[in-house]
Fold Methyltransferase type 11 domain-containing protein.
Amino acid sequence: MKAICTELVERGTGDTDPFDGAVFDVIVCTQAYHHFEDINGTTKILASYLKPGTGVLVVIDMIRSSESEKLHKDHGHVVVYKGGFEEEPIRSAFVDAAGLQNYSFKPAFQMGWEEKLVDLFIATGVRTAT
C-alpha cells in the first residue's frame, strides 16, 4: 500500500504521472462527491486511472433529501457542499462524462449524521476496454 498526495489530472494530460503508469482494478470514493464542484470532471479523471475493460469506479454518497440538505450548512464558505444527489447527475457523470459502462445506482443504507438519518447510494461503473 502506498499513499500519494497529488492534484489529479486526467491520465495523459499532465507533465507527470503520479502513479508511474499504474492503473487500478477499483477506485472507491466515499462521502466526498458532495464536496466536489465538478463531479463530471472528477469522474472523468478517476475513470482515466481505471484498468481498461475491467476497472470499476465505486462512489458512495448521500441521496438528496430534506435531511441531507440541512447537514453542513455552515461549511459552504470553506468547501463546496451539494447536500447529496439525485440519480441523474451521477448517471450523467459516469455515463456521459466519463464513458463508463455497466452503470448502476442503488440506494444502499442509512447513516446517522448530526442527529439526522440520511440515505446513501452506491454507484458503480466499469471503464471501457478502449
User: Anything to note?
Assistant: The longest helix spans residues 87-97.
